[in-house]
Specification:
about 260 residues, about 25% helix, Fumarylacetoacetate hydrolase, domain 2
Length: about 260
């Protein structure tokens, strides 16, 4: 199977899983276990399909930034994906059946006020592009059955993106200490995840710098107006229909997501 055929085969498998609601086998059997470039080609192929259907990109996400999540999923490096307009749970509700195998994680998210330079070298370079910060819940999902993923599988699957929700009030970036920020996430009132800004690659801006370099390398630099989910501050938590999740982050307030029992 040629490289192009492998990309098309993996992309089709992931699309079929999403459309049918039935998770699929890992795609590393056709892409190999180490060809990350091919995995990003699969991701781009399926994003192009969604763009052709009228979807638009409104931001980016960095995945696998905390040691807790890397340990949970058995991977050792970050990845990135795109946030599309239909992933925004703006009303705080996730319909039942919308996602296959949802899990939640609490994050600090940033709204970009300026383009991030393609040659960004320091966290100061990315900080200069950030206008504000918000508390976020990312609802990750996997089209791969049982979350049996390698780095290649999750990259191909748009970094295991599902949906996301962010707090309504944007806090000026200079007014919040994102490194020392403390996070607590509850599910149905019970604390299920805690962490600090330091859990995200040592500093959330380290994650954004990593993303800026990776995005520039793919020919898609970070742009003004985009939302950046910087990565988990604590472990992933599974959710089911009927669950209510709240994340609180010091200096940024709280954000809530309700998982509906109805589609």
């Amino acid at each position: 199977m040629t490289g192009t055929d492998s990309v098309e085969s993996a992309a089709a498998r992931l699309r079929d899983a999403e459309l049918s609601g039935v998770p699929c086998a890992p795609v590393r059997d056709v892409l190999g276990t180490s060809d990350i470039a091919a995995a990003y080609a699969v991701q781009r192929r399926n994003l192009d399909v969604r763009y052709a259907l009228g979807r638009r990109r409104i931001g980016r996400k960095i995945g696998l930034t905390s040691e807790a999540v890397q340990s949970q999923l058995g991977v050792t490096q970050p990845d990135s994906g795109s946030l599309l307009d239909d992933m925004d749970a703006a009303d705080g509700v996730v319909p039942a059946g919308r996602l296959l195998q949802p899990r939640v994680e609490a994050e600090i998210a940033f709204w970009l006020e300026r383009d991030v330079p393609a040659d960004a070298k320091t966290i100061e370079d990315v900080a200069a592009a950030i206008g504000s910060a918000v508390a976020a819940i990312e609802i990750v999902d996997s089209r791969i059955a049982g979350w049996d993923i390698s780095i290649v599988d999750t990259v191909a699957d748009n970094a295991s993106s599902g949906m996301f929700a962010v707090s309504g009030q944007r806090v000026p970036f200079e007014d919040v200490d994102v490194l020392a920020a403390r996070m607590s996430m509850t599910r149905n009132g019970e604390v299920v995840s805690t962490g600090t800004g330091a859990a995200c690659l040592g500093h959330p801006l380290n994650a954004v710098l990593w993303l800026a370099r990776a995005a520039a390398g793919l020919g898609e630099p970070l742009l003004a107006g985009e939302l950046v989910l910087s990565g988990a501050l604590g472990p992933l938590v599974p959710v089911e229909p009927g669950d209510h999740v709240r994340a609180e982050i010091t200096g940024l307030g709280s954000v809530d997501v309700q998982f509906s029992r109805e589609e």
